Structure formats: structure tokens, C-alpha cells
Amino acid sequence: MRDISENSSVKENAPVNWTNMLLFSLTPLFALTLVPWYGFTYGYSVYDWTVFVLMMGFCGISITAGYHRLWSHKAYKAHPVLRFIFALGGACALQNDVFNWASDHRRHHAFVDNNDRDPYSAGRGFWFSHIGWIVRNYESGKQDFSNIKDLQRDPILCWQHKHYLTLVLVMNIALPALLGYLGGSIMAGLLLAGLLRLVLSQHVTYLINSLAHMWGQQPYSDKSSARDNTVLAFLTYGEGYHNYHHTFQWDYRNGIRWWHFDPTKWLIRSCEWLGLTSDLKRVSPLTIETARLEMQYRHASEKCNALANAEKWRSKLEEEYQQLKATLDLWAMHRQQWYEAKTTQLQDQLHEKWDQLALRDSYREVRYKLKLQRQRWQELMQGFSNLQQNAA
């Protein structure tokens, strides 16, 4: 695994950003004191908590689906109506305008873990990557819009950038107050849908910059500190599959399995059915499986050196690896042919039917072969783990 502290430089005595320092110091303090005080004194209604949850989701999804996957990574295209909604939600989340957010994030991916160039490098510790980079004016976080020229051509984003402060005040004060008024208590709306929602939604997002680079697994790549973490995925609307994201950042999905909790992916896909999103980018299954296989093979190869009869085990490993890799390539080819045949219209319908049946049977046969070889491979990986534990 890459050592993320290897490029640590002399501690930088950056000037304090007093606006951010006060914001990120006072809002949590007020949330910890005023919110429970009002709750014990006057109480919150079911309506108040419902609005709080909906506002949390609105801000969170605007960041993950809008700021992150749409604008930072161009993983799909969105209708102007959806882009406008995300621009409002981003201002409500109070995580800066899209220009600044996306510029920082693109540099994060380009120079991940580089303490001098990654705006929120995990190599500088949890505090720095979580919030420390915001409360001081570090050189690595210096504003530079040279990498977002494509976004500067979007009139909605130009409008948000120009009127960002006004939007922040409207979305964080006027809107919660209005919603609170409709529920019978302006103060309850300001405290729950305004203050508490703001603090929690910000720190939930920042967990991806910090904890998702320190806690979890690296099934696809260890070229960066990014990790997959199911718990974080649940808290961050699907962003917790961070090792996958850093390996395949152009994919509109973070959780690629059907059981992965990724409501951002579900929203983007649902909006495609409604005509609000298009050109959803996906990484091919072969590319994904090959990345997983390469990581497992490399780790197993390293374990061989500590085993008795290392050459024997290395030979067995190489044989299984080459067989599984060849079957993966064959499976991908048959899979593509089968899906193309299902969507191709031929003049001879009968001939098409028989061709499709033959392709289907061939694809199923290769898929079953791949399943068996995967089982053998997993058994071999487990065997390596057991042998290493016994050797220890």
C-alpha cells in the first residue's frame, strides 16, 4: 500500500481564514446548545423532524449527485431543471459554490495524497483532511479555476457563483424560517432544518475527505489512500465506496452491486427514465473484475514469499490466475455478443432467433465456467490466508 505520509513537508504556518473559523466553530457550538435547549423547553413536532430529514437529503444529494458526480466528474448529463435544483441545494449545504468545490475536487483526484498539491490530502492527518484545510488558507487550497473552464460555460453555474451569498442566506435562513412558519414554529424550523441540518450535512460530506481515506478496504487499487466502507456509504448517500470511485472516477455509480447502498446512483438512474439525465457513464464489468483480480493476485504473490514451498504455491497461483483471466476475457466477449444480439434487428427474424439462442447458451456456459473458476480462486486466496496465519 502507498505510504501517504511520504511526501509530508514542513508544517505549514498558514494564515487563519477567520470567516470559516468562526462559521465552523460557532455553528456546532450553537447546534449542541440551542437545539436541545429548545427541544426540552418547547419540543419539536413530527413535522419539524420530517422537514429536517428532507432538508438533509436535499443538501446531501445536491452535493453527491450535483457537485460531485455531475460537475466534478462529468459522469452524466443533466437537464437544466435538475442542474438548477442542485445549484440551490449546494448553496443550502454551504460548501462553497460549484466553481470552487469542483476545482478543489478535481485537483484532489489529480494529486491525491500529495501534501503540497492535494487541497485536502489525507497524508496530513484526519483533522486536516476533514476540516483543517478549510479554516486556514493553505497554499495547496489556493483558488485556481484553470481546471473548470468547461463549468464556467454553464449559465446556471455562473449565476450561482455570482449570487452565491444571497442564495446561502435564502436557503439557510429564509427557507427554514418559512418551513418552520408553515409548521407552527419559525424557531423550530431555524434550529432543526437550518442549524442542525447545516452542521450535520457538512460533516457528513467531510467524512469522505477524511475517514474514507483511512478506514475500509482497497479491493480495486492501492495507488491512493481511498477505501471502500459500507458504513460511510450509508451515511453519505452512497459515497463510501471510495476506493472504487478513485479507481474509476468517471462512473456515475459508486456502489456497483445491486445490494450496495447508493441512493445517489438510484436518483441519477431514475431521472434518466424521466428524461432529466442522460449519457450515464459506466465502467465495463471486465475492467472492474480485472482490477479486483490484479489486486488479489499481487497480494497473494507477496504472501508466497513467506510460505514454505514458495515456488510450488507461486506456480499454483500463476496457473489459476492465468486461467481465471482468460475466462474473464472470454466471458466479456460472449456477454457483449449476447447483449448486442438482443438489441440488433435482423431481416431474417427466424435466423435472428436461432442466433440469439445459440449466443445465449454459449454465454451461459462461459458464465458458469467463470463462476466455478472464481470459486477455485477464492478457495486459493483463503488457503493463502490460512497458511500465512499458521506460519505466523
From TrEMBL:
Residues 49-269 form the Fatty acid desaturase domain. GO terms for biological process: fatty acid biosynthetic process. Its main location: membrane. The chain crosses the membrane at residues 21-40, 46-67, 163-182. The keyword Transmembrane applies. It is found in: Membrane. Keywords: Fatty acid biosynthesis, Fatty acid metabolism, Iron, Lipid biosynthesis, Lipid metabolism, Membrane, Oxidoreductase, Transmembrane, Transmembrane helix. GO terms for molecular function: oxidoreductase activity, acting on paired donors, with oxidation of a pair of donors resulting in the reduction of molecular oxygen to two molecules of water. It is a multi-pass membrane protein. GO terms for cellular component: membrane. Belongs to the fatty acid desaturase type 2 family. This is Stearoyl-CoA 9-desaturase.
